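Design review, sub-item: ligand-bound model
Attendees: FS, YL, KQ
YL presented the inputs for the cytidine-5'-monophosphate complex:
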Amino acid sequence: MTQRILLIISGGIAAYKSLELVRLLRKRGIAVRAVLTESAKQFVTPLSLGVLTEDQVFDALFDLKAEREIGHIQLSRQADLVVVAPATANILARMANGIADDLATTLLLATDKPVLAVPAMNVRMWRHRATQRNLAQLRADGVHVMEPDAGEMACGEYGKGRMPEPAAIAAEIERLLTLPLPVAPLADPLTGQPDFAGDAGPLAGRHVLITAGPTHEPIDPVRYIANRSSGKQGFAIAAAAARAGARVTLVAGPVHLPTPAGVDRVDVETARDMLAAVEAALPADAAIMVAAVADWRTADAAGQKIKKDGSGQPAPLALVENPDILATIGHSDRRPPLLIGFAAETQKIAEHAQAKLAKKGADWIVANDVSGDVMGGDANAVQIVTAAGLESWPVLPKDQVAAKLIEKVANALAARTD
Ligand code: C5P
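KQ shared the predicted structure:
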């Protein structure tokens, strides 16, 4: 069956690259229907797009003829994937806030299909807090966002914000079209629960418990011990589990991430708090421990800020080991039927993960190589160690790792007979 893209072109100088994108998609046998915003028409013409797509080009919300022949709701749902390329700071802001004031944004609000945004803008606009806030919101809502390229900009400045090359966008589109799970945000806005439009979702009726982020172990009121962790991978897994219909409890260490739709979040600070929150959230059908728990805490956190005493010698720090949350749960009688740990390794990844299976009493260890740029980044290369052996996944964006992992969890739970 021919796959179909709804391509929304917003008004940036990079819009000219969208013509090449259409050509590449068509060459791959993908049908493209184009929508132009008012300002995009300053950069590309409906005529050139119409020729390349061999289809009608849509450019106005109240195009009565089009509304009679094809309503905007229908238009938003006939594609397999909605792509916004280039996505200007303005359209990203409108998408993040659910504003529907033209045809493009109305389609984006009405669609039930996955959405890929390909930002392109000046480096300062890209780095602006407002844009980054909007992007974080869009990601939390399940929108796929491609990272822009860095380089010289049309405006003469240098930095991140250039639209990726059409070949890279076409490759990303092809990849998203092959994804097995629903990747769109299907949360019912009234209940906050995922809405599978009549389909209950592969994890319906299941409780999935997830830990994410670091823990902070206070040294004194202003200092703490922690592992590096952005929480992004754990939050993406929580979002994917909710989209698959599970009831999700997310026990989160201190991170600055929005709560994914349909997820019950419990914020904690220390490892001991995290263990208590995890125990309180049991029973669960599956627990996925993604948190980077600090291995040690100070034997005694000081009540007042520790002052330098002028001797040049650092204050002595007595450390004690924190409880291992995964191992505690793994060896308890309230162990969930499926228990998954994560392992951040910099060398001998599979070997260390294998050893951890038994030590922690886990069913799977998801090992990731953190020798590169994984921490805080948006991509992850993981290997999954189970009793059955080792599975290696390619480098994937963290939300795709999450979707694949949740699919594997759903299959494993469905295969259980007890
Ligand atoms: O032993 P290591 O820290 O490499 O193990 C990582 C796995 O164990 C992760 O799943 C992590 O969430 C979990 N863990 C834990 N409590 C600790 C340390 C790690 O739950 N104190």
